[in-house]
Amino acid sequence: RAFRPTIHAVDSTDRDSGPRGDSSARLPSKPSLTPIDHDIRLDPPFFPRILEPQWISGGIGGRPGGSTAWSADGTLILQVSGSRSDTYRYIHTATTGDFEFSVLFHSLQNLSMTGLMVRESSDDYGPYIFFSIQDNGRLLLQVRHTHRPPQIVHISDAPVRLPCRLRIVRVGDRFQAASFDDGAWEPIAEHTIALPEQVRVGLAVSCQVPGMLGTAEFQDVLIRLPATNNKMHDLRRSRIEW
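Structure (tokenized):
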């Protein structure tokens, strides 16, 4: 179903399994890190426009039973019932071209994986990039390329503390995952994956403990866009510093 949450817009300022439970996702592949060594900063004001999302609530790997999504007083709340299968509640919206997607993770309870997901489509087996917090508190960047099994790009050494702010930035086929620490964005990992101009961007949550109810609370859910997306090719030719 579709719904429009009321979200405060702020002006500028170990589990290895992946979605759909592929057994190959449990074997970490050699990280494929693509450094981006350019020198124009893509922080605001390069993403000055805020997208008004039309959220759609659905599932990946099947529709999770007992799952709900709603918003209240600027907080977006997702709940999902525990299951042994590798299913996810996924709320998502469409966006085209380069973007910055950032979220404040306020609280997580009984969840196996929770994070920012960018997908080619809502198809279970389609390519994606997933930047998540695992149940042990560590950050995980995972991808699936077309016609290939999921691949682990990065797992952090130490757990993060909540609340914490995470983001994904897209420039062409390049994606960077970062966390906000001590007043600045700190890059976690980068990866290049071929995704279409228009993608699905959203939040995915999974609880893999039967009988448990997993709950995630998010704030400041922001999707920022360049001033004009028809000049993306100019940005890509420019030198960019993350």
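The radius of gyration is 17 Å. The first strand starts at residue 2 and ends at 3.
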